[in-house]
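Below is one protein, fold included:
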Amino acid sequence: MTEIKTFATAEEAKGFMASFHRYTDPASVSPLKGEAAHEVAVGPVHAGVIEPGHFRFQCMGEDVYNLQIFLGYQHRGVEEEIVRADGNLPRQIALAETCAGDTSIAAATCFAEIIEARDALSTSTSSLHLRELLLELERIANHVGDLGALAGDVAFLPTSSFCGRIRGEYLNMTALLCGNRFGRNAVVPGGMRVTLTDEKTAQLKDWIVRVKKDLDAALKLMFEEPTVCERFDGTGVVPKDVAADLGLVGVARRASDELNGDVLSRALIRRLEIEEAHEKVFALLASAPHSNPNAQTSKHPNALVAIVSTVAAWRGPLVHAALFDHGKMTDYRIVDPSAHNWQGLAWALRGEQISNFPICNKSFNLSYCGTDR
């Protein structure tokens, strides 16, 4: 979905672009008093390959009184680079889709929609169809990986092991369609670099049916295991009214709106979204159009305009916004859904024991690198 807004002055345009907010560091709270009061610092450097982020737990004994989350330790300047690369579409697409690697397809779609709106490019039905298919495969792969990681955090290794392998299957399905496991180098303004052939459609149908049986069995193991459900149930609750006040989006918001907003709820919503995504995938494969006409181009608008694209990514709504002055890009902003949800994670830890942080954190699975300013 895209929206175009025209401005009379540069100041008005700058103010509009500045409204695309990021996560802001939390204010400090009154220090705890007493012999059992202490602070636990985690990060900003973490084990493995994840981006840097700093967590500061203010605790009374083992109980968390407040969690402060500080981001922005590694600024890569992705937005500024996209502006500097104006006119070099391959470079701009590569920058957009690697801002947060696990959301490459959604990010590339956002960028493509912005350029399509600017240049009035007509995108074929088959291209839109294939983008939607890739977005749903991206959603499934990430939710499967997160559910497997949740299982691993409570030492339930059967589901953890199964999901680790099954996530790879869905990434390989994406590679079948476009040559890259993360869907890179596939979406372009006006269409797609790849097409969905009859042969690929038939192969994908058989592949998904086979893999989904394994996935259903793996998830059934976890959600029917009393010790796992007991560990998740009632942990890290974000009530519905709090979720609304904080402006949570995506899985975190659905878990609070439709269920009771705990770790189990966020896991169940992921499972539900996996089912919904499979239904969409099967429907898309059953009615896949194959025509892919060339896009039609018009001249750049002679105006100061902002174009906003919103795509339903797997974490929630991903927003990209660009400002153009007579067709020349002068500003670019990215708002990852994680930017809305970090304070939800902080709230979920209030009153919890600090040992519950890993499963609370994984139940949100927010992006450090999606917030790059």
About this structure: The two ends are 24 Å apart (CA to CA). DSSP finds 13 helices and nine strands in the chain.
